[in-house]
Amino acid sequence: MSHFMEPEMAIVRPLQFGRAKPGFAGHQRVELLRRISETGSISQAAKAMGVSYRHAWKMIDAMNQSAAEPLVRCQTGGQHGGGTALTDEGRRLIAVCDAAEQEHRRFLATLGRRLKDFDRFYELLI
């Protein structure tokens, strides 16, 4: 008798990178960096993600404080109102996270194939 409602079980776990604190560069933070790169604006990036400007700023500040070098640089004022840009380090972080995420998905898919009988073994464990 199966304990799972779905015919096949999927193994899912989001990938996060931690430094001093967990979640240094989790999915949401990397997505924020991507959006900043596209828009040149924290405000527009936050809006596109459906988070508040304050929350986006806190994520940026936490990443910048934890990273060896700043990931995001903000320029205030000016004739065109300033802007925000990723540093080379921020762009490298996105590339590393993308590569790690691809490997992570590959690992989970392999694990899922190897554990096709997990439902049957789960019954033995309980």
Structure in a nutshell:
It contains five helices and two strands; from the N terminus they run H-H-H-E-E-H-H. It has 126 residues and is mainly alpha-helical.
How would you characterize the overall build of this protein?
This protein is mainly α and about 130 residues long. The protein has helices spanning about 25-40, 40-50, 55-65, 90-115, 120-125, and strands spanning about 70-75, 85. Strands 1-2 form a two-stranded antiparallel ribbon. A hairpin with a 7-residue loop joins strand 1 and strand 2.
Element pattern in H and E: HHHEEHH
Shape verdict: elongated
Q: What share of the residues does DSSP label as strand, in percent?
A: 5-15%
Question: SS-based structural class?
Answer: mainly alpha
What gap, in angstroms, lies between the N and C termini?
12 Å
| Backbone CA Rg | 20 Å
Share in helix: 55-70%
Q: Taking strands numbered 1, 2, ... along the chain, how are they ordered across the largest sheet?
A: 1-2
| Total strand segments | 2
